[in-house]
Amino acid sequence: MPPRAFDLITCVHGLHYVGDKLAVLTRIVRWLTPTGRFVADLDLSSIRLADGRPAGRRLTALLRTAGIVYDARRRRISCTGPRDLSLPCAYLGAGDHAGANYTGQPAVHSYYRSA
Questions:
Q1: Tens digit of pLDDT for each residue in 50-81?
Q2: pTM of the entire structure?
Q3: Burial class (CB in 10 A: 0-12, 13-18, 19+), 11
Q4: Closest alpha carbon to 107 in 93, 90, 95, 91
Q5: pLDDT digits (tens, 9 = 90+) for 37-50
Q6: Cα–Cα distance between 72 and 84 in angstroms, integer?
Q7: Given CA atoms 67, 30, 12, 113 in this order, what sign does their dihedral have?
C-alpha cells in the first residue's frame, strides 16, 4: 500500500504489457481517495481462463458488482472512490504469443484459474 491515497490514477495502454492484470487492478482501486478517479485502457479479451478462452461476461459482472465500470466499446475501465476488489481467481501466468492488440501493439494475455 502506498503511503497516501491518490485523487487520480490513469494508465493509457500500459496494462496490455502486464502479466497479472487483475492483481494490478485490485491494488490500484484501493489507492484512491473517496473522490479519487481511476481510468485505464484495458481490453478484457486479454484476460483468459486456463483453457485460453476469454474471461468475458463473468469478469465484467464481477467488476460491475464491485462498482467498476467497463466500457467495452472504448475498452476502458474506471471507477470513482476506493474499492475492495476481490476476484475469485488465481493467476497462472502470462503468454507473449497474443500478438497485436486493438492498438496494433504487441500484447500479453493473462491466464487465470477460476476459484
A1: 999 999 888 999 999 999 999 999 999 999 99
A2: 0.91
A3: middle
A4: 95
A5: 999 999 999 999 99
A6: 22
A7: negative
